Amino acid sequence: MIAFGAVLAQTSKDYQVSILQSEVEDLEGVLNNVAEILGLDAEWARRAAIRVRGGSRYEAQPVREGLTWDEFNAINVRLPELPGVVANSADVRAYPYDIVYAHPIGYVQKPAQRDIDRALENEATGRARAVYLRNPHVRIGRSGMEAQMEDELHGLPGFRKVIVNARGVEQGEDVSERREPVRGAGLVLTLDHELQRAAMESFGQDQAGSAVVMDIYNGDLLVMASAPGFDPNLFVNGIAQEPFRVLNEDQKKPLFHKSVTGTYAPGSTFKMIVAIAAKQAGMADDFHVSCPGYFSYGGRAFHCWRRGGHGRINMRNAMKASCNVFHYQAALIAGPERIAAVARQFGFGQTYDIDVPGVVAGLVPDPTWWRENRREGWTGGLTLNYGVGQGALQITPLQLAVVAARIGNNGHAVMPRLIREGPGVIDPPTPPDMSEIDAGHLAAIREGMFAVCNEGGGTALSAGNLGLVRHPETGVAEIEAPHNRGWPRVQIAGKTGTAQVRALTEATRGRHFSQIEYRFRDHGLFCCFGPWHEPRYACAVVVEHGGGGSVAAGPIARRIMRETLLRDPARRAPARLATLEPDRRQA
Fold first, then answer.
1. What is the pLDDT of residues 493-536, one digit of tens each?
2. Confidence of residue 123 (pLDDT cuts 50, 70, 90)
3. Strand positions, DSSP E, 84-145
4. Domains of the chain
5. What distance in Å separates the CA atoms of residue 148 and residue 577, rounded to the nearest whole number?
6. Three-state secondary structure call for residue 267
């Protein structure tokens, strides 16, 4: 697998020590000697003996894989005193950038018994496939693209039928039953190597979340980062029980591909959808409300995030300041059915076939869904919660990036893709019809998002301060310096969001997020597109339990978008599989 010329997954040599049972008289003694050389304990030797006895007596059974060169040499020099021990190497999958691509690419692993049983159930390939999977050197895709595209990437195994004597010594071959192996396909991904790495580095050690960057015209996913990451190389030869337990029980869920399987309330990033729906429903261009810090409805107060309120405010300023009270009333004008329809048109509530497993649709509820699943009628209070992106509404970071892209490109229903070249490239599904989305409505929303990042009172001024300018003739982005300070600024448009994990009380309202237990802290979100003068890229960032979107997600998005606009991948020719295949064959 390749991303902009960087090899992300390849075949490399794995140094191993194996045991040939037929040549060993004292299996436990030999394995204890191997354990001593490699610095392993007696429990390892005991388990290794069980594995070896469960295999063929006449085929070398691997007992330790992934040896370092020093360990491999240490075994080699002691071979004369280790009867039946074989120091060998095998071809295995290797991931040179470990955590950077762990989630989208995934990893391979030794087949489990369930894989063999599943192969036997297949009448076409059953027994041959099962025999192949029992080979101790075989690995199959277990997560990410490795699993989703196992058949295409793995190719076809070769085999030959040999004749052996009672001791397993080869005597000849039946040449009529031989098949040469067929090499698996290569893939060129849309991911930009430098941007993916920068995105992963942008999340601090104590942060969990996701970042997605997308080309708003061709749908190329340039970044799919999920933090924290994990090293997929640990799984290739079988991860030990304790390291797996640590990964599996970590509350930040490093094994979880948050870009496509993480679901979150969108918070205020949903306000663009609400405003578009309200405009469709006839909300006047000069519509304004008075925000005293709350909105009274149905006998209760629905609060704005700003205790003292925003005063008299129109749509543009309500977007800039993220006023809840304005969007409560906009939601009532639009109604839940219209809001749900617009949300789906822009990309929420949808799954996308991007050749990774586990892509979820999230949830865009409406009154029909509510009656069928909650067994009760929809209320006005639910509509108000809808207006600020709370309640049952659930979205993924990938969906949020798609929404930002479709707003940024003026309503073109772009579809995301992760494979640029290879067997997974197919005609994209029919995108939703967005022809009824009024261009004027979208322009008004984009103006509000511009104000968020570039005008006083905007909730993401720091995220919008990229420190970049563009060449007046070529349009290429450069870091601002004394010699170019008079050039036009490079700007973005965006929206912050803070999604509650649990409802606030009067006691917790206004409390700093560090004083709240981690699992109950708000999620921070931010989505944007840019550059403003000629939009090309959209970005979505979610920081789990990170607090407000402006303080948690905004700084990460700023770094990622800054790097994206400087690298400007759309201006560069992508790698091509045909030119990279020779290098891949030598790897």
1. 999 999 988 765 555 555 666 778 888 889 999 999 999 999 99
2. low
3. 85-94, 107-109, 140-143
4. 13-90 (3.90.1310.10), 95-154 (no CATH), 193-231+264-571 (3.40.710.10)
5. 20
6. helix
